Each structure stands twice: as C-alpha cells, then as structure tokens.
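discrete fold record:
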Amino acid sequence: MVNAKLINKWNEWSETWYPIYRTDEVISGIIRNPESAFHPATYAMLRQACPTLEGKRICVPSSGNNHAAFAFHLMGASVTSVDISERQIANSAAIAAKHGWDIQFICDNTMTLGEIPSNAYDLVYTSNGVHVWIDDLSAMYRSIHRILTDGGTYLMLDVHPFNRPFDKGSQTPTIVKSYDATGPIVIDDIPLYNWRMQDLMNAMITAGLRLDQIEEMFAEDGSFWIDDSIHDVDSFSAEELEDLCDWRSNPMAALPQWLSIKAKK
C-alpha cells in the first residue's frame, strides 16, 4: 500500500527542494548535452544496449527530476515518465510543454505500474535514488519485467549499497548501521530502505530478468559527498571538490560510489 505521507512529502519537496533541478540553466545544460543526464559508465551501457535511441519506446519509473526522461526524448526516443508524486509530474510536464517536448507523463506507483501496458517498452530506466523508497523490490521488478518487450532492456543507476552503512556527511569512515539492516528505517513516519547487492540482483532474477552487465563506479566529482539539501555545492572550491574524490584525503572515496546494472527480458 502506498504511504500517503510519502506522497505528501514528495509533493512538498517538489516545490521546496526540487526547483534547483528545474532551473533554466539546468534544463539548458541537458538540451545542449543530453548524455550529461547519465553517469558516463551508465551512458556507455545504454549505448551498448541501444546504439540508436531514435524511435525507441522508453519508460522511466520513479522519474523524479525527469532529467533522464528529457534526455531520452532529446535523443529521439518515445518517452513515458512515471512518478508517484503529482507535483513532480506536473512540474516536469510544464517544462516539457514549455519546450514543446512530446513526453507522456503518468502518476503511478513503480511497484505496480498499473497504468502502464504490458510488453510496451524497449527500455526501462531507473535513476539514482529510486530503490530507497521501494518497500517491495520483487513487485517492482515483476512490474518492470511485465512492461518490457521480449528482448527489452532494463538499466539502472543508484548509489552503491556499500555506501549505505556509512555516514555520508563524515569524511572519516563512520559506520551508522549494519549492511544487513535493510529497513524499514523510519524517518518522520516515512520508511526508507537500504537494499543490499543481493537484494537488488535476486529481485531482478526472480522477476525473470537476465543480468547482462554490472558496473561499479566512482563519482564524477566531489559533489557526491556534499548533501545539497544542507550545503551549497558552489561554496566549495575546485580543489576541495577534487580532494573529496581522493581516497587519501577522503577515505570514503575508496569505496565505489555508484552502481549500474543492465538486464534483459
């Protein structure tokens, strides 16, 4: 069952926190360089799966800031953006309308995708920050498997699970939970989940997806280590950001920061 408080919180964040991802400057950057919406390793996996995106049918569940949805459209795909938050969908649809982008926006739950037809998409993509809100990975991946065409591809990017036990705000490795403590971790009556590698991969396999490629990546820049809901990234110098990526000055940087998995139906 969908947590109503979670929906309300995301609707609130869409108006208070997420405007920083919808500025004209940010959107112009995606227009100039659509691939910038993806980690370079994830983009390479995408191009391996789909050498051309022209005419490809792509669904982006839990689309969040919709940067990936915008980028897919700009690269020629037919895109459906899905999110549980009405305000995230409405705000992203307004950007698409402003630029004349033909993107379908649907308010729906990623664990069911009840408004999405079966066997309809060549590619399903989930981006950073999706899995922490999902309380039933098996249901999510069964739904993704259902909406993919035979031979279709699922591609994901998310924070590497190895980072979850640590305090991200501390440059000194500080463990705040066990790796096995997946959740729910309840904050303000909203449950969060810190899934392990095995949870992600087993849910995909059980749903019928065939694992095709796994990449463990480091951050592109030091902003990964900065909580932008608390600190202004622009207040950090280039040298400070570079130091955050060096494990000798920031031991946490010795861990992989990102995980991408590609799977086939």
Summary: The first helix runs from residue 4 to 16.
